[in-house]
Automatic annotation (TrEMBL):
Domain Alpha-carbonic anhydrase as annotated: residue spans: 14-270
Record's keyword terms, sorted: Lyase
Domain of life: Eukaryota
Region (Disordered): 333-357
Family annotation (SMART domains): Carb_anhydrase
GO biological process, alphabetically ordered: formation of translation preinitiation complex; translation reinitiation
Organism: Pediculus humanus subsp. corporis (Body louse)
Gene3D superfamilies, sorted: Alpha carbonic anhydrase (3.10.200.10), SUI1-like domain (3.30.780.10)
Protein name from the UniProt record: Density-regulated protein homolog
Length: 449
């Protein structure tokens, strides 16, 4: 019995399945000791309302596409067949996030006032500036997950069309790690846009900072919880619950228990549709003074969403000690000394507030071109790397090694590479310097020097 228990523990921890005996409480590492874990219980009466930007999406989000469906051994997952497609959303406050995959949890993982929905769908995205999911996985602002909730219905209430395709396809996923095209045997070959998986109205949502709900439980997820719910049929739920797990048994449920909030802020988006008041408010003195942080330049109540929050706290404590007392989370503030040290602190409005110097805006763009050299030879010219603070000598040496050719710095912001490697640079530059998106590289074609 003891040996069986140990083997099951090994399977549970390393395969991170939702085990019958130890369940998710047995997960180790950051899953166990982290203080920003997900999911959470959302107490609707205690969340704060904020005027947050509306979620926008790229045009590719609306294009009908083919999907693959996979039994991962602990959930059912959908991903785009076209791996080169990069549809993304714009969270406004957090940048652009590219769609990676979506999957389901039954029952739902997040709770609302202690109650769960029957099904929760997670649409996983990664920050576009990191170019790939694997690179974004460990970055502090790497991931964003959109959560949509569904309630069971036995009546003829409207159900999202994609559930029919999922139910029909699950019969071909008898074993873990099997995958097939969605609607494999269907004559209609239904195509879906990513907007088909979103609520019709995305204006009402809740946000908070949390983690992945499966190991390694990285705490770098911006959660967007949509409040508008939809319905799922009994037949679809039954098909999901009979999906085979890694141990060969049905996955009856695959949700992680709720985690402690630990003082995190949970915000509800205010808008005209859900009660955002227009015009002056009674009891409010105008003009309203907004205090900004000298580190991240955001209003101080949004500092916690900045990746380098610790630097913001240091700036606030030094320059705005009164505001520091208000915005720093309970238990997050370090013990302060009293007496003379307190007297020496600059108070609000004093000379301690240092306005950050405005940097001259530089148009970040890299231009590549091909120039003739003699009758049959040519060189490749790269201009603009310095706008990304890249050392030209280091870059020149890298190009010479990469292409096994001569490479030299010939101007203030110009590198000349022997040979025609212009087309290769569109892959090589973003791979070497991830902060440079391919959209920043412009092909000037053939130019004379």
């Amino acid at each position: 019995m003891i040996n069986t228990f140990k083997n099951y523990y090994y399977y549970c921890y390393y395969q991170f399945d939702y085990c019958i005996y130890l369940h998710a409480d047995s997960w180790g590492g950051i899953c166990k000791i982290g203080d920003k874990q997900s999911p959470i219980n959302i107490k609707l009466g205690e969340i704060q309302s904020r005027f947050l930007p509306e979620i926008c999406h790229h045009d590719e989000y609306e294009i009908k596409q083919k999907f693959m469906i996979k039994n991962t051994g602990h959930t059912v997952q959908l991903a785009l067949q076209n791996k080169s497609a990069k549809p993304f959303i714009h969270l406004g406050y957090g940048g652009k996030y590219v769609f990676e995959q979506l999957h389901f949890h039954w029952d739902a993982e997040h709770e609302f006032d202690g109650k769960r929905a029957d099904l929760e769908m997670h649409m996983v995205h990664y920050n576009k500036k990191y170019n790939s999911f694997s690179k974004a996985l460990t970055e502090p602002d790497g991931l964003a997950v959109l959560a949509v909730f569904f309630d069971r219905t036995e009546s003829k209430k409207p159900i999202k069309n994609f559930f029919n395709s999922i139910t029909d396809s699950l019969q071909y996923l008898e074993k873990p790690n099997e995958y097939v095209p969605l609607d494999k045997e269907s004559k209609s070959k239904n195509l879906y846009a990513l907007t088909d998986f979103l609520p019709d109205d995305v204006s009402s949502y809740i946000i908070y900072n949390g983690s992945l709900t499966t190991p390694p439980c990285h705490e770098n997820v911006q959660w967007v919880i949509f409040l508008n719910r939809y319905y799922v049929s009994d037949s679809t739920l039954k098909s999901l619950r009979t999906t085979k797990g890694e141990d060969g048994n049905n996955i009856e449920s695959n949700y992680r228990p709720v985690q402690k909030l630990n003082g995190r802020n949970v915000f509800h988006r205010l808008s005209e549709k859900n009660g955002f008041p227009l015009g002056p408010l009674p009891g409010v003195v105008y003009p309203v003074n907004v205090v900004y942080c000298g580190n991240c330049t955001l209003p101080i109540e949004y500092c916690e969403y900045y990746p380098e929050y610790e630097k913001c706290k240091q700036w606030l404590e030094k320059n705005l000690p009164n505001e520091f007392e208000k915005v720093v989370k309970v238990g997050d503030k370090e013990e302060e000394g009293g007496g003379e040290e307190e007297k020496k602190r600059q108070k609000r409005g004093g000379k301690g507030i240092v306005k950050p110097k405005k940097k001259e805006e530089v148009n970040k763009k890299i231009c590549v071109s091909r120039a003739p050299r003699g009758k049959k030879k040519s060189v490749t010219v790269v201009v603009g790397l310095s706008t990304f603070d890249i050392d030209l000598k280091v870059a020149s040496k890298f190009f010479g090694t990469k292409f096994a050719c001569g490479s030299s710095v010939t101007g203030d912001d110009e590198i000349v590479i022997q040979g025609d490697v212009k087309d290769d640079l569109f892959d090589v530059i973003p791979e070497k310097w991830p902060e440079i998106d391919v959209d920043f590289i412009e092909d000037l074609g053939d130019l004379k020097r």
